[in-house]
Amino acid sequence: TTFFGSRIDEFVPIGSKKMKKVPHGIAHFLEHKMFAQPDGKDVMDLFSERGASVNAYTAFDRTVYHFSSNTAFEENLNTLLDFVQNLYITEENVEKEKGIIIQEAKMYLDRPGSRHYYALLDQMFSKDSVRYPGIGSIEDIRSITVEELQMCYDTFYHPSNMMLIISGNVDPDKTLSIIKENQSKKTFGIAPKIVVKKYSEPKTVHKKNIVLHMNVKIPKISYNFKIDMRNWDTKKRRIYLTLLSFFFDMHFGSRSILLDRLKKQHIISNNLGYSVTNYGDYAVCSIDGETEFPEKCLEILQNELYQAIITKKDFERYKKVVISDIIYASDDIYDINSRFLSQMAHYRQVFVNNIEDIRHFTFSAYQKAMKEISLQEYGTIILLPQKN
Fold first, then answer.
1. Residues with Cβ < 8 Å from 321, sequence gap 6 or more?
2. What is each CA distance from 143 to 95, 140, 246, 296, 309, in whole angstroms?
3. Per residue in 244-287, pLDDT tens?
4. Which sequence positions are flagged as catalytic?
């Protein structure tokens, strides 16, 4: 993982003293180009030949390259380290990649889920570059140059700005020796001091109500909240975000009384969903679902939000459910890997024993947090079937 994501669009390049603005989507474009090799071999084929799978993704705060395998661990680990630490770009292969990524961007624009996500970020943020699609616009993609890609790579793909997480049945000491041997054969420059432009994002939502017409059979709705975390320290952010997840899951999750009622009344077609996402200075919380009655459903969600009551008994019971979920997930190496990665990306440290954290949550602390957290900044999104 490198801590270079789609949100970063202006920074001081290594060897420079001035801010440089780059096209949106360049982190994702660079992710694609990391798989190109001077010898023309396809990195994915190398992993596939060993029975391994490899992939990558770009989020707003990171770019991640990952593989999983049951065999040839050492060979696969060395290949991962080598291809991520060796950028090979030419005018020709960059121009060729533009066509591929433009087609990918068009595909996302045709997907209701992707369009909804883009609309959500645009609704919540007015200044922060997180509001732009991570893949960039078609114009952004066309404008990306070899020089800009190299500049981003040189600045953000230095080992000092990167992290490696390995989960599974491996020997830690032997694994570290493999990594050290691999890195000893390479030369890296002095770690750059990375300076990224920070945007002064207001606490208000950018757009209150958004209505989109897309190729959907059943309308989709979401009720979205922007939570100001600028005055919260790391510990408070961690605790309050967990308690927010408690709140939304208890009221609107798959085990909620509200969902059962909405299904019996045939207002919700399938399930309600919720998310609580950390964007640094702000968190975004969202409730979504499919419904034939979008306006009525949003009204019900709003009433539930401000009228529902959770008892101490409900809270303690829910704590046990969450702890059992964590214990169940502790057998999943992918979940462990993802959780540690997320903690490092957001807090630059790992919190191992989150079960103990949850056990120590009290009902009074939950009540205090929910009184302190403001849900006044919100917006709604409705996806309707296309007009004939």
1. 255
2. 10, 5, 44, 44, 53
3. 999 999 999 888 889 999 999 999 988 899 999 999 999 999 99
4. 31
